[in-house]
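This protein record is not my work; I was only asked to verify it. The record follows directly below this note.
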Amino acid sequence: MNHEEQVVLYAAGQLSKNERARFEEHLAGCLECQADLRLWQMIADEITASDSAVPAPVPLAERALEQIHRPASLQAGFRRAWQLLQIQSQIIQREMWPASAGVMALGAIVALVADHIEVIYFIAPLVAAASLAILFNPEYDPALELTLSTPTSPWKVLLARLSIVSGYNLLLALAATFALLAIVPPSLLGTLILGWLGPMTFLSALALLLSLWMGTSNAIAIAYSLWLVQYIPYKLVVGWMVSPSWASVLVTYQRFWQSPVLLLSLSFLLFGLALWFANRPVFRLAQETA
């Protein structure tokens, strides 16, 4: 060890007892080392003074842990939710937006030309069901596997997409309904909305849940079949079926689709099941191996 290294270690108090004694013997007769030692001691004193000038608060660690575990503020929660919505709106299949709008516009035009508002009742649930069936499926979302590997929970991703697409479908249906005011009095606006709101919400929720279980194509086929069955004419059923009880079943089934409160209640239940299922490990494994 040379003298320069010994000076630094001596000033820092890093020499052993024997090394310190030998260096002090040398230091007594070496003016150069004495000058170097004064310089390094001044530096050490400056560092010590700087460290002690701003002492760390005593409860610093406790306050840091408290900050980490503190529940997020409402403003921060809204900001993260808005960021998630922005990101997911860019991932959703872009072709869906003009396709849904085009079909809904066509339904409104047919309803106006034919003077039959029932066309919107028929079209709106079908459009919404198809758009939600492709919402969370690797067949239409190549980035889904990457999405599932992010820290964001799958149910939050699904909820964000569900909010975006459902809101879009709702605006389309409302726009078509307002267009129908050209042939119906404004006093019937509430009746018009209730006519498609319950069926559209329920069929959408059903299609979404089925798509998580058995894929998009099967979900759309089943949802559309359940929706179209109610349009089988009553007289045709009576003519086909031997037992009149089948006709009463059909009547009950048709009334089911005309019960907005019941349909909306069941819709929230189905949406909840879909969000719960999307967060299960079995769903992640199925999507990653699809």
In short: The CA atoms of residues 23 and 29 lie 10 Å apart. Residues 154-179 form the longest helix (26 residues).
